[in-house]
Batch of 2 targets.
Target 1
Amino acid sequence: MESDKIIERWVPQFRKGLLEFIILLKLQQGDIYGYELAVEIKKLTSIEVAEGTLYPLLNRLKRDGLVTTEWKTAEIGSPRKYYEITSLGIETLAKMKSTWTQTHNSILNMVMQS
Amino acid sequence: MESDKIIERWVPQFRKGLLEFIILLKLQQGDIYGYELAVEIKKLTSIEVAEGTLYPLLNRLKRDGLVTTEWKTAEIGSPRKYYEITSLGIETLAKMKSTWTQTHNSILNMVMQS
DNA sequence: ATAATATACCTTGTATAGCTAGGTATGTTA
DNA sequence: TAACATACCTAGCTATACAAGGTATATTAT
């Protein structure tokens, strides 16, 4: 199979879990709503998050108590559902950071050896 | 839900795709057979790869032409199926490295801002 | 001898997550 | 008034990690 095609299939798998990590990182910087989150992630990481990925993911985070939500209706525009990270979310994020750092260091060692 | 439990469920997702990357990295350092690969990955990254994960993954790599295999029977011990990375595998690995580096840099920026 | 453990391979079924492709509704611009 | 952008959501598909099973050989302990 062609290399580009393989990468195309690999990237979504690579993102699994990572996306959750990235979203929590972003939420730690302040409350944000779903649509803006997708735009921000694209800008910061070049990762294009499909809405069919994003909204179910945010619901999982809420279900597990990592975030809370609040509808905010402005004078103009559609109502927005804002997400706020909880203390459990912050605690979990710290562990993810640790896992990420550890894994990255291991991979870096392998890359340097090759 | 408890933070540890969340991480426990998150880690397998985090690994998706990453594992493929790690295996190709390891294969680039020389031919290796499945069982030894699992032991090596554990030693290098602290990631315990289940055999039910490893062997299907290796078969996928072979199916896609990223590796070739060769049975080797020694005087003693069970026969071993050795995996060798192909030129397509090396080409693909280079792209994975690039994706990895790019993503890592983005995340690093977010971690530093928080 | 025989039981237990380690090595070395494999497969089936389950749970989960990303993505495609749809949908609804409001606001803005051509 | 038509087209586009904003902003939310869901159903169904596919792929992957993992648990739990299996087979076979070699080594070590009893």
Target 2
Amino acid sequence: MQSRTPASRTGRPRSAAADAAILAATRAALVELGWSKLTLGDVATRAGVAKTTLYRRWAGKHELVVDAVAELFDELELPDRGSLAADIEGVVLQFASILDRPEARSGLMAVVAESTRDDALRERIRASIVDRQMRLVLEGRARAQCRGELPPEPDPAESARTGDLIFDMVAGAVVHRTLVSGKPADEEWVRSFTRVLLTGLASQQ
Amino acid sequence: MQSRTPASRTGRPRSAAADAAILAATRAALVELGWSKLTLGDVATRAGVAKTTLYRRWAGKHELVVDAVAELFDELELPDRGSLAADIEGVVLQFASILDRPEARSGLMAVVAESTRDDALRERIRASIVDRQMRLVLEGRARAQCRGELPPEPDPAESARTGDLIFDMVAGAVVHRTLVSGKPADEEWVRSFTRVLLTGLASQQ
Amino acid sequence: MQSRTPASRTGRPRSAAADAAILAATRAALVELGWSKLTLGDVATRAGVAKTTLYRRWAGKHELVVDAVAELFDELELPDRGSLAADIEGVVLQFASILDRPEARSGLMAVVAESTRDDALRERIRASIVDRQMRLVLEGRARAQCRGELPPEPDPAESARTGDLIFDMVAGAVVHRTLVSGKPADEEWVRSFTRVLLTGLASQQ
Amino acid sequence: MQSRTPASRTGRPRSAAADAAILAATRAALVELGWSKLTLGDVATRAGVAKTTLYRRWAGKHELVVDAVAELFDELELPDRGSLAADIEGVVLQFASILDRPEARSGLMAVVAESTRDDALRERIRASIVDRQMRLVLEGRARAQCRGELPPEPDPAESARTGDLIFDMVAGAVVHRTLVSGKPADEEWVRSFTRVLLTGLASQQ
DNA sequence: GTCTAATCGAGACGGTACGTCTCGTCTTCAC
DNA sequence: GTGAAGACGAGACGTACCGTCTCGATTAGAC
């Protein structure tokens, strides 16, 4: 979240309802207006809250949108679907369906763009959004290694590198397909993607 | 470029030098300020040009930055390096080195973000930036098919789908590695990436 | 006025109509809202002008109101009414009728209050408002000296001191009567005031 | 004062020290910041008091400043100096020395300005500040009539009118000299003023 | 060599959002 | 029930850019 528990014991406590209202209003505004036309004054109005209240909790548009979008990724899960291929297809479809929602589309790339010049923002994105996805990759790999579908990783450093690589390949492909190419990451595409990821380009029929 | 030569025969012709100066100034401003702090008034001042002159040629910040960033991708080439793996490694390294430049980092994601709500902008990006990269993918695949490294594609529709998939996987992975994970797409990473792309996850030593 | 002819030859010239509209809108807002509820945003809206335009010409509320109120004092005149007493009564009544207008009442004291901490503002008030009244005092005295109603002033320094004193007594009495005591400076009061001023307290009846 | 002792028997009684601290803090803030930059939050902090406490006692900035400034006028006295002229000179010098203090300069005119649109405030100023001065005028006149320096006033209505007139002339002149003309009401000026007030303009030299 | 029309620079214009400030009220806990 | 602390809704502040406009001053090609 945005507050780092400033340890103030006295005074009126901050309204928890306001936080939720502001984040919901932010997502609604993203859907209606998109990132570039979203204004904090409008978000405050939608949330039935004063601008002051908003600025007391978030430093600016970017931080607010990160938190608002991050909540969308709460629903990502990795149930055991029986095989590595099924696990990948399942999580990629989930991920794609989140990226398909307009509140994610317009906001996500914008904060990533800004994070290239703002390390605090990049860290916030990592903690709120990226790590959540990364955990699924590690979990899926461990499960596949249990099943014997993937070889075990003896070296922890190498393991981290490979985990990063897989994550960049999976997330990058879905994001690029959805937001840059502008085409849907539907079941057919996901199947093709999973096959190439697992068996390589040369294996194509 | 941006002008469609409105067929005006008479009057003072537009200064060609101004175009170049504006695009260069835009890149310089991107480096110094990043996307969000870049203002057209400042670009005009840097270029030694009036705001009017700038607006006569570009409709707004997004269009201008697309053109300014697109020029960076002119240097992408695909010399024959002898094998598919070498070709991929070469072009990915080139691509990564472009994405590493600050004028690309801050601008590229921002215009992509905006393009999720602006079809004209998406089309402009596709024409100026994406197609240029896509062509390399198609060219590389054709070359690999000649070498017998990849099977031929009899069905044109299927061929297009596969081309799209490869492109999203390559470009997506590099972009995600560079801009989201914030780590360098260096030679070691590129080698690992190429191996997985060609032979699949399961093939890991 | 507010501009000191910045001698800019180039660029779009400032709209003269905007100046007049802003000052008129300021007076209208003073009448409706009074000093403390007057906002520059509202003045700009009333004048059909952007806030920017207003701030380009005036530094703030105080300066703007000084100029808006100063125009009210343009109508002050000193026709020869035949005697010093008649001249004083005439000009005091004029002055009182200006101070009776709501746009002057609410604004004048406020800028004077602020001027006690802002020398530039005090100077602006002096130049725009006070000097205009002072001139009438000097003119009236000179006329009375021609008529032989007042003794001539041989010493220029002493003359300036006496002029200041008379001015403070006349203007101060009218202002205090109108704005502090809150009672009208009507003909009866003006006659009494003039008698005391000319012949002294002890002369009553 | 501001509270009307609402006869609450129970609970913690209001701190009397808080009142004094708030008024002193208000004067200190007037000296440092002047009227326009004085904020109630700042006054509360200076007084070591919560904003709530302040608002429980005063309705707003204007009322608070009236009370804070009014205390300055407590020191006004009219000892018998032997003659009307000496009495006037004495009280005018006292009055001028109060007006010379920055906490009075910046606050007094501001509340007068606001009082032109707020009858309750005008009444408060009259009761707290103006009447205190008015009483001195009436007392001085009575004393002068006892001495035979001024003729007696048979008609009470006429007496009130004349008292008002003298008051407006004395207070108005000092205020105008000090706050509008911005020059000191020093002994020399006070002597000249007293002479003109007592014997009239025509009597000079 | 004009003429002519679109260009150029400069900068003011009406807007809109910004992020900050102060207002006066409300809510909590401690005394 | 009062006090300090501080969050709250409200709304003005003055600034920054936006994209458009109005200027006077070039500038090239058409005549």
